[in-house]
Amino acid sequence: MMSIMKCTKNVGLFAVLMTTGGSCLAQSTNGLSSLAASAGISLESAVGIGVKSVYGVLIFLSVLALAIVLYFLVALRKGQIVPASLRRELKEKMEAGDLTEARRLCRFRSSPLSSVMLAGLDHLHEVPEEDPMLLRDLVEAEGARQSETLQGQIQYLMDVAVVAPMLGLLGTVFGMMLAFNSVAGAVAMVRPTELVGGVNKAMTTTAVGLIVGIPAMMFFAFFRRRSARMVALLEMASAELFTALMRGRNLK
To answer: How far apart are CA 37 and CA 41, in angstroms?
Structure first.
Protein backbone atom coordinates (compact mmCIF):
# COMPACT_ATOMS: atom_id res chain seq x y z
CA MET A 1 0.00 0.00 0.00
CA MET A 2 2.83 2.34 0.88
CA SER A 3 4.53 1.53 -2.44
CA ILE A 4 1.37 2.43 -4.35
CA MET A 5 1.12 5.74 -2.50
CA LYS A 6 4.78 6.56 -3.27
CA CYS A 7 4.31 5.74 -6.93
CA THR A 8 1.19 7.90 -7.08
CA LYS A 9 3.07 10.73 -5.40
CA ASN A 10 5.99 10.43 -7.89
CA VAL A 11 3.65 10.39 -10.88
CA GLY A 12 1.88 13.46 -9.54
CA LEU A 13 5.21 15.27 -9.06
CA PHE A 14 6.29 14.34 -12.59
CA ALA A 15 3.03 15.65 -14.00
CA VAL A 16 3.49 18.93 -12.14
CA LEU A 17 7.04 19.29 -13.44
CA MET A 18 5.97 18.55 -17.01
CA THR A 19 3.10 20.99 -16.79
CA THR A 20 5.36 23.70 -15.36
CA GLY A 21 8.08 23.05 -17.93
CA GLY A 22 5.63 23.06 -20.81
CA SER A 23 4.11 26.27 -19.54
CA CYS A 24 7.53 27.94 -19.33
CA LEU A 25 8.47 26.77 -22.82
CA ALA A 26 5.16 27.93 -24.18
CA GLN A 27 5.65 31.34 -22.59
CA SER A 28 9.17 31.56 -24.05
CA THR A 29 7.86 30.59 -27.47
CA ASN A 30 5.12 33.17 -27.12
CA GLY A 31 7.79 35.78 -26.45
CA LEU A 32 9.70 34.69 -29.53
CA SER A 33 6.49 34.93 -31.52
CA SER A 34 6.10 38.54 -30.44
CA LEU A 35 9.71 39.26 -31.39
CA ALA A 36 9.25 37.69 -34.82
CA ALA A 37 6.00 39.63 -35.31
CA SER A 38 7.80 42.88 -34.54
CA ALA A 39 10.25 42.00 -37.33
CA GLY A 40 7.37 41.56 -39.75
CA ILE A 41 7.39 37.75 -40.01
CA SER A 42 5.64 34.96 -38.16
CA LEU A 43 7.43 32.58 -35.84
CA GLU A 44 6.57 29.68 -38.15
CA SER A 45 8.26 31.45 -41.07
CA ALA A 46 11.34 32.35 -39.02
CA VAL A 47 11.72 28.84 -37.67
CA GLY A 48 11.10 27.40 -41.14
CA ILE A 49 13.97 29.47 -42.49
CA GLY A 50 16.14 28.24 -39.63
CA VAL A 51 15.29 24.58 -40.32
CA LYS A 52 16.00 24.99 -44.04
CA SER A 53 19.33 26.62 -43.20
CA VAL A 54 20.23 23.70 -40.94
CA TYR A 55 19.38 21.22 -43.72
CA GLY A 56 21.44 23.24 -46.18
CA VAL A 57 24.51 23.24 -43.95
CA LEU A 58 24.11 19.52 -43.22
CA ILE A 59 23.95 18.77 -46.95
CA PHE A 60 27.10 20.84 -47.47
CA LEU A 61 28.88 18.98 -44.65
CA SER A 62 27.85 15.61 -46.08
CA VAL A 63 29.25 16.54 -49.51
CA LEU A 64 32.41 17.91 -47.89
CA ALA A 65 32.89 14.73 -45.85
CA LEU A 66 32.39 12.58 -48.94
CA ALA A 67 34.96 14.62 -50.87
CA ILE A 68 37.47 14.33 -48.01
CA VAL A 69 36.96 10.57 -47.78
CA LEU A 70 37.48 10.10 -51.53
CA TYR A 71 40.58 12.30 -51.42
CA PHE A 72 42.19 10.33 -48.59
CA LEU A 73 41.32 7.00 -50.20
CA VAL A 74 43.54 8.12 -53.08
CA ALA A 75 46.16 10.20 -51.21
CA LEU A 76 46.85 7.96 -48.21
CA ARG A 77 48.43 5.13 -50.16
CA LYS A 78 51.96 3.80 -50.10
CA GLY A 79 52.43 4.63 -53.76
CA GLN A 80 51.55 8.27 -53.10
CA ILE A 81 53.53 8.76 -49.88
CA VAL A 82 56.63 6.63 -50.52
CA PRO A 83 56.73 5.60 -54.21
CA ALA A 84 58.80 2.42 -54.49
CA SER A 85 60.40 3.36 -57.82
CA LEU A 86 61.38 6.82 -56.56
CA ARG A 87 62.81 5.34 -53.38
CA ARG A 88 64.90 2.86 -55.36
CA GLU A 89 66.18 5.41 -57.89
CA LEU A 90 67.04 7.98 -55.20
CA LYS A 91 68.99 5.39 -53.27
CA GLU A 92 70.99 4.47 -56.37
CA LYS A 93 71.76 8.09 -57.26
CA MET A 94 72.71 9.07 -53.72
CA GLU A 95 74.98 6.09 -53.17
CA ALA A 96 76.68 6.95 -56.48
CA GLY A 97 77.10 10.57 -55.37
CA ASP A 98 74.97 11.91 -58.25
CA LEU A 99 73.13 14.54 -56.20
CA THR A 100 72.20 16.64 -59.23
CA GLU A 101 70.19 13.80 -60.72
CA ALA A 102 68.71 13.03 -57.30
CA ARG A 103 67.50 16.63 -57.00
CA ARG A 104 65.97 16.42 -60.45
CA LEU A 105 64.08 13.27 -59.51
CA CYS A 106 62.72 14.90 -56.35
CA ARG A 107 61.60 18.01 -58.20
CA PHE A 108 59.76 16.20 -60.99
CA ARG A 109 58.20 13.41 -58.91
CA SER A 110 56.32 15.16 -56.15
CA SER A 111 55.57 13.20 -52.97
CA PRO A 112 56.16 13.56 -49.22
CA LEU A 113 59.31 11.44 -49.57
CA SER A 114 60.71 13.63 -52.34
CA SER A 115 59.91 16.76 -50.31
CA VAL A 116 61.82 15.42 -47.31
CA MET A 117 64.91 14.50 -49.31
CA LEU A 118 64.77 17.63 -51.44
CA ALA A 119 65.11 19.75 -48.30
CA GLY A 120 68.47 18.12 -47.60
CA LEU A 121 69.62 18.06 -51.22
CA ASP A 122 68.84 21.73 -51.79
CA HIS A 123 70.74 22.65 -48.65
CA LEU A 124 73.73 20.59 -49.76
CA HIS A 125 73.60 22.33 -53.13
CA GLU A 126 73.95 25.69 -51.38
CA VAL A 127 76.34 24.55 -48.63
CA PRO A 128 78.35 21.59 -50.00
CA GLU A 129 80.39 21.07 -46.81
CA GLU A 130 77.45 21.09 -44.42
CA ASP A 131 77.85 19.33 -41.07
CA PRO A 132 76.10 15.88 -41.12
CA MET A 133 74.28 16.50 -37.83
CA LEU A 134 72.84 19.80 -39.04
CA LEU A 135 71.83 18.16 -42.29
CA ARG A 136 70.07 15.37 -40.37
CA ASP A 137 68.19 17.95 -38.30
CA LEU A 138 67.07 19.71 -41.47
CA VAL A 139 65.78 16.48 -43.03
CA GLU A 140 64.02 15.46 -39.80
CA ALA A 141 62.36 18.89 -39.55
CA GLU A 142 60.95 18.55 -43.06
CA GLY A 143 59.85 15.01 -42.24
CA ALA A 144 57.98 16.29 -39.17
CA ARG A 145 56.30 18.95 -41.31
CA GLN A 146 55.17 16.36 -43.86
CA SER A 147 53.87 14.11 -41.07
CA GLU A 148 51.89 16.97 -39.57
CA THR A 149 50.42 17.75 -42.98
CA LEU A 150 49.31 14.14 -43.46
CA GLN A 151 47.77 13.79 -40.02
CA GLY A 152 46.46 17.35 -39.70
CA GLN A 153 44.27 17.17 -42.79
CA ILE A 154 42.36 14.23 -41.34
CA GLN A 155 41.15 16.52 -38.55
CA TYR A 156 38.61 17.97 -40.98
CA LEU A 157 36.63 14.73 -40.72
CA MET A 158 36.57 15.06 -36.95
CA ASP A 159 35.30 18.63 -37.32
CA VAL A 160 32.43 17.40 -39.50
CA ALA A 161 31.69 14.60 -37.03
CA VAL A 162 31.40 17.12 -34.19
CA VAL A 163 29.54 19.92 -35.97
CA ALA A 164 26.89 17.80 -37.78
CA PRO A 165 25.16 16.43 -34.63
CA MET A 166 25.24 19.90 -33.08
CA LEU A 167 23.46 21.29 -36.13
CA GLY A 168 20.96 18.45 -35.81
CA LEU A 169 20.39 19.51 -32.21
CA LEU A 170 19.82 23.08 -33.37
CA GLY A 171 17.20 21.81 -35.80
CA THR A 172 15.64 19.93 -32.89
CA VAL A 173 15.33 23.17 -30.96
CA PHE A 174 13.64 24.82 -33.94
CA GLY A 175 11.22 21.92 -34.28
CA MET A 176 10.31 22.00 -30.59
CA MET A 177 9.73 25.74 -30.88
CA LEU A 178 7.14 25.05 -33.56
CA ALA A 179 5.59 22.30 -31.47
CA PHE A 180 5.22 24.46 -28.38
CA ASN A 181 4.08 27.45 -30.43
CA SER A 182 1.06 25.40 -31.48
CA VAL A 183 -0.02 25.20 -27.82
CA ALA A 184 1.19 28.65 -26.79
CA GLY A 185 -2.27 30.14 -27.14
CA ALA A 186 -5.35 28.83 -25.44
CA VAL A 187 -4.80 25.50 -23.72
CA ALA A 188 -8.10 24.17 -24.98
CA MET A 189 -7.23 24.95 -28.62
CA VAL A 190 -4.37 22.53 -29.14
CA ARG A 191 -3.61 21.84 -32.81
CA PRO A 192 -2.35 18.22 -33.01
CA THR A 193 -1.26 18.45 -36.65
CA GLU A 194 1.07 21.36 -36.01
CA LEU A 195 2.31 19.76 -32.80
CA VAL A 196 3.22 16.54 -34.60
CA GLY A 197 4.76 18.51 -37.47
CA GLY A 198 7.08 20.38 -35.12
CA VAL A 199 8.16 17.18 -33.35
CA ASN A 200 8.73 15.52 -36.74
CA LYS A 201 11.05 18.31 -37.83
CA ALA A 202 12.87 18.09 -34.51
CA MET A 203 13.50 14.35 -34.84
CA THR A 204 14.37 14.51 -38.54
CA THR A 205 17.11 17.11 -38.18
CA THR A 206 18.60 15.17 -35.28
CA ALA A 207 18.63 12.00 -37.37
CA VAL A 208 20.22 13.75 -40.36
CA GLY A 209 22.91 15.25 -38.14
CA LEU A 210 23.76 11.82 -36.75
CA ILE A 211 23.68 10.23 -40.21
CA VAL A 212 26.33 12.73 -41.33
CA GLY A 213 28.37 12.72 -38.11
CA ILE A 214 28.66 8.99 -37.36
CA PRO A 215 30.23 7.93 -40.71
CA ALA A 216 32.56 10.94 -40.54
CA MET A 217 33.76 9.77 -37.13
CA MET A 218 34.25 6.20 -38.37
CA PHE A 219 36.27 7.34 -41.39
CA PHE A 220 38.32 9.64 -39.17
CA ALA A 221 39.35 6.67 -37.02
CA PHE A 222 40.13 4.62 -40.14
CA PHE A 223 42.28 7.29 -41.80
CA ARG A 224 44.00 8.17 -38.54
CA ARG A 225 45.34 4.63 -38.30
CA ARG A 226 46.28 4.60 -41.98
CA SER A 227 48.08 7.95 -41.71
CA ALA A 228 50.05 6.66 -38.71
CA ARG A 229 51.25 3.73 -40.82
CA MET A 230 52.15 6.04 -43.70
CA VAL A 231 54.12 8.34 -41.38
CA ALA A 232 56.07 5.37 -39.99
CA LEU A 233 56.82 4.23 -43.55
CA LEU A 234 57.93 7.74 -44.52
CA GLU A 235 60.29 7.94 -41.54
CA MET A 236 61.82 4.57 -42.38
CA ALA A 237 62.35 5.45 -46.05
CA SER A 238 63.79 8.87 -45.19
CA ALA A 239 66.27 7.31 -42.76
CA GLU A 240 67.34 4.80 -45.41
CA LEU A 241 67.87 7.47 -48.05
CA PHE A 242 69.72 9.74 -45.63
CA THR A 243 72.10 6.89 -44.87
CA ALA A 244 72.62 6.39 -48.61
CA LEU A 245 73.29 10.12 -48.98
CA MET A 246 75.91 10.06 -46.24
CA ARG A 247 77.51 6.96 -47.73
CA GLY A 248 77.72 8.59 -51.14
CA ARG A 249 79.37 11.70 -49.71
CA ASN A 250 81.66 9.76 -47.39
CA LEU A 251 80.30 11.72 -44.40
CA LYS A 252 79.82 8.84 -42.01
So the answer is: 5
